[in-house]
Design a protein that fits this description.
There is one protein chain. Helix content is 56%, strand content 9%. It is mainly α and 68 residues long. α2 (18-25) packs across α3 (29-36).
Length: 68
Amino acid sequence: MAIKVRLAVVLAERNVKSKDLAEHVGITEANLSLLKQGKVKGVRFDTLGRICQFLDCQPGDLLVYEAD
């Protein structure tokens, strides 16, 4: 897949724990872990919006396109 998830990087840059983000967003830590690893086929816009709100970032900070 050409879309890479940078969520783990952004969490580390902001010193945010996955547990705190998952709690704010309303998803399980297991599902957040799958998202961080890029093992999901999609993410709902409202979920992405809550992540961006908590991390004070833009969707483009979390998802990047890399040509194969």
